[in-house]
Amino acid sequence: MTEPLPNLLDLDRVIHEPARLLLVALLSSVESADFLFLLKESRLTKGNLSVHLTRLENAGYLSVEKSFRGKIPHTEYKLTPKGAAAFDGYRRSLATFLNKKKRE
Amino acid sequence: MTPSRQGDMGMDIDAAAKRGRGYLFVDGLAEMAGGVVFVLVGGVVLLGGLIPGESLMARIAATGVGVVIVKAVGLLTAVLAIWWFKDRFTYPRTGYVRQKRIPFSQILAFVRNAFLVLALPLFALAATFVFVPHMRGALSSIPIWAPALLGVMWGVPCYWLGEWAGLRRFRLLGMSTFFAGIAVGVGLLLIGWPGRLASASPAQMLGRTFAGVGLLSMICGAAFVLSGLVTFLRYRKENPLPYGQEP
After folding, report:
1. Which residues of A touch B98 (CB under 8 A)?
2. pTM of the model as a whole
3. Residue in A34, A94, A102 nearest the CB of B96
4. How many CB atoms lie under 10 A from the CB of residue B243?
5. CB distance from A32 to chain B under 8 Å?
6. Which 98-127 residues of chain B touch chain A by CB within 8 A?
7. Do residues A12 and A90 make contact, with C-beta atoms less than 8 angstroms apart?
8. Which of B6, B17, B243 sits opposite A36 (nearest CB)?
9. Is A101's Cβ below 8 Å from some Cβ in B?
10. Strand pairing partners for A78?
11. Choosing among B6, B83, B97, which should be mutated to test the A contact, i.e. which has the most A CBs within 10 A?
């Protein structure tokens, strides 16, 4: 009897989008990072990056901290526990799906 | 999506997750600073081995104090210099990353494990020396195994750091350190130092051990400085100006 495949449609669609997946992955291993780091690493445009960060923030996956470094405004982004759990869940689901596909 | 593409995607997620961890080393400054401290410490140990002292204990104490001072002053200066330079050079170019705080319990566990890994072999060695007289001869080869042991002790964590932070050059530096330790030990064997140890005095043996350890520390430090310099030049070429000031 064959086991049912995990349903790909159940994957978290907020994270599944490649740009947001990259942003969440970048933030997963650090306490927080600023806009410029995410901009340079993702190679997105400023506008595009802002849109994706806002989407993640609205989903409760990111928290934003605004401050000043000297006289320059500084914005740091941090993955929330909900975001970290969603990223772990997404990786597990994808890995399970890919491993099952590989065994077939 | 083909299976190979799916596999690539998995690797890319891992690589992205490691990116932030290795950000401290993105500009090569930490490597250079660490390398300079290693070279200085190596120099002090090497001098401690070459300069004749009044007594064995006086030479060990003088070298030990020198190493502690160089390490303390060097590390403090390095941390301050890196912090100052990154604030003015790196963060305006490629951004700021705050690393995860390590819980105190994790630090304690690391110190305990490190102590066990380092202290147990030394206790075993001391016990062998005291209780098994015919094994004492093995200690006469200390100029060979001291650099080899240090090569392992420095090389393995360096390789692990490279693996953890996704930095290939640290894996290479770890392997180089590992083999440099063995090479220095074997080199001393080839020039005949341990062969003549039967007739060597404790002071001569100490000098040879210090020379080997100091040489290894200087070689490893120089490799770190070189690696850091290459990384720094590449970083500067890729990011010549702060963000927003590019033409």
Report:
1. 30-33, 76
2. 0.81
3. A34
4. 15
5. yes
6. 98-101
7. yes
8. B243
9. yes
10. A63
11. B97
Q: Within 10 A of B175 (CB to CB), how many other CB atoms are there?
A: 15
Q: What residues in A contact B21, CB-CB < 8 Å?
A: 29-30
Minimal C-alpha gap between B20 and chain A (Å) = 6
Is B207:B242 a contact under the CB 8 Å cutoff? no
Per-residue pLDDT of chain B (247 residues; tens, 9 = 90+): 333 333 444 447 888 888 888 999 999 999 999 999 999 999 999 888 777 766 777 778 888 888 899 999 999 999 999 999 999 999 999 999 998 888 888 888 888 887 777 677 767 766 776 677 666 666 667 777 788 888 988 899 999 999 989 899 999 999 999 999 989 888 877 776 655 555 667 777 778 888 888 999 999 999 999 999 999 999 999 999 898 877 6
| Partner A contacted by B245 (CB < 8 A) | no
CA closest to A98 among chain B residues: B6
Question: For A40-72, what is each residue's pLDDT tens digit?
Answer: 999 999 999 999 999 999 999 999 999 887 777
- CA atoms of A47 and B135, how far apart (whole Å): 71
What is the b/e burial string over A19-55, where b = at least 16 CB atoms within 10 angstroms of the residue's CB?
bbbbbbbbbbbbebbbbbbbbbbbebeeeebeebbeb
Phi and psi torsions of A10, nearest 5°:
-85, -10
Q: CA A86 → CA A77, A81, A93, B126, B144, distances in Å?
A: 16, 8, 10, 52, 52
CA distances A97 to A9, A13, A103, B2, B12, Å, are 11, 16, 10, 13, 17
DSSP A14-55: HHHSHHHHHHHHHHHTSSEEEHHHHHHHH---HHHHHHHHHH
Task: Report ipTM (2 d.p.).
Answer: 0.83
Between A22, A95, A101, which is nearest B3 by CB?
A: A101
